[in-house]
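Anyone have tokens for Thioredoxin? Sequence:
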Amino acid sequence: MFKNGFYSLLFLSLLFSCKKGEVKEVSQKVSSVKSYTYNELKPLLEKNDGKTYVVNFWATWCAPCVKELPAFEKLNKEYAAKNVEVILVSLDFPKQVDKRLIPFINKHNLQSKVVLLNDINEDVWIKAIDSTWSGAIPATLIYNAKGRTFYEKSFDYEELESELKTIL
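Reply: yep, here.
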């Protein structure tokens, strides 16, 4: 009896601790990340379903990549209702997924879709993604049915939003 009453009181106190209209996000911890070869990832880079996609290539060991992630997370949150989807394509080493990538996702509470590109043929997929890409990260692809633009640079939120608006 005490156990049920205790949890009921805990739930009510959490419920009423939120201000009117405020919803506290409860995020679940990530326990796995889907791994793709380039051929498996390619359909995510060519969708034509009415959405706009912002695809960021990054890694946990890349300081400029980590610095810009909040801009992509904010864009994901602000534009989700406007038919925009952010996909974070990790180029971390496959052997470090459990020890580095998954803990990083959980620590930083990443809400965007995160996938791992696990393909050793970088000479093929780098040029296939964009012929001008040197392979340096961070790099970002923004595309929809109207157009496709590739950026080999870091973004802050204002720049990222501005580039997104040019294609919406």
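Confidence is low (pLDDT under 50) at residues 1-26.
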